[in-house]
Amino acid sequence: MAEKTGIGKQSLKSKWRVIKWPNHNTACRICKVIQIWEDTITNQEIAAAVVMLFIIQPLKVIIQLIQITMLRKCMRKRNLKAIMRSLDNKELERGDSNQLDRLFFQYIQETGLIIDSCHVLKKNVVKLQTEQGPKVLKGFKNKEKLHGQLLLGSILDDRNEKVAASFEPFPTKEWFFHYDGLYWACMPVEEGTPLDFSKRADRLLGLRQIAKFHKETGNLTKDVAPLKLFQLNEKWLRRYNRFQLSLNQAPIQKEFVPLASSVQRWGEWILERINRKFLQHLEVEALNNRSLIHGDVAHHNFLRNKFETVLIDFDLIAYAPLEYDYLQYINRIMPFLKWDLQEVRDIPIPGLKHCLQNPDLYLLLAFPTDFFREWLFLMRTNEQKLNNYLAYARQKFQERERFFIQVQKAYYKRITYN
């Protein structure tokens, strides 16, 4: 761990000289010193202060200054001990995989953050209340991935308009620390609420935010994502195969079996007709042009407040066709559109229009990637929630089936005329 960055001897002297002492009262002098050094005080600075006070005031002042400083340190240790007790009582755990230990919090203390409380959101995401304000710590297995996100954040921070949340250095000026196989970085908590896709204004706001993100990242001169080809067909094929293999193992009620079988047939029909050469051409071109997608445009990754809307969580950024963000976004909002594309047809966003007008991309809008994703996640985590999701999907089945048939007709019509 890097050493803490102090304010320096010259800075100490200059700060001391500009103080306007109202009187020579001892308590007044001590309060002024503590107020100035509240956030940056280190052992070296305490020593320097003692030397300076020795010239000005008797030994009594020195002792009082040291007592006050030690009291502040004790309060910090008391907060840390409270967190440790919570760990012992397993109050900070959401599950067996989310265990934290004392050494982890000692590492955090060494970064200069003064912890008041802690809440584990995920195994690699921790929310902290600190003296420096609310923070989120996020752990990355891959150091290069973290470096890419740090670089992307610094680039976007230089733009005129904020479009995304970004990391910040710790008080020690370090950008991350390594602990238990993860590289941990810090960001301030973004104030705001997620978008509500049931509201038309929020759906349109999300589309504009995606377009803004694409525009701001369209001329990056440094690589912020892995230089590898993004293959949508291969990704969907793997997800479909996992779904198919899990059908006989899924703990679902018998009434939902016909629904799952129908969705499986839809996925199989589309995978057999995907224009792989066309997609590969788009993907190679996107990699060469460094076209960056967010990759996870779920409603909770848009945070809106009265001043701005920002994107968060860039774990799935990749060099890929911009259309892929719009394909995923449409897939996520379609249940709220009753599986009718009329609302988004006239929006003047090039990538979105390409998805709606190009027949090879239009075909992909009917692929049930959302159904496969939720099925696979809930099957291994929560049986009751899986059956609740299937009940919801069955309510939307007729609307979705109607859209699938519409896509089928468009495909066969194109084949006939060609």
UniProtKB/TrEMBL annotation:
<keyword id="KW-1133">Transmembrane helix</keyword>
<dbReference type="GO" id="GO:0042601">
    <property type="term" value="C:endospore-forming forespore"/>
</dbReference>
<dbReference type="InterPro" id="IPR047175">
    <property type="entry name" value="CotS-like"/>
</dbReference>
<dbReference type="InterPro" id="IPR011009">
    <property type="entry name" value="Kinase-like_dom_sf"/>
</dbReference>
<protein>
    <recommendedName>
        <fullName>Aminoglycoside phosphotransferase domain-containing protein</fullName>
    </recommendedName>
</protein>
<dbReference type="Pfam" id="PF01636">
    <property type="entry name" value="APH"/>
</dbReference>
<keyword id="KW-0812">Transmembrane</keyword>
<feature type="transmembrane region" description="Helical">
    <location>
        <begin position="46"/>
        <end position="71"/>
    </location>
</feature>
<keyword id="KW-0472">Membrane</keyword>
<dbReference type="InterPro" id="IPR002575">
    <property type="entry name" value="Aminoglycoside_PTrfase"/>
</dbReference>
<feature type="domain" description="Aminoglycoside phosphotransferase">
    <location>
        <begin position="236"/>
        <end position="330"/>
    </location>
</feature>
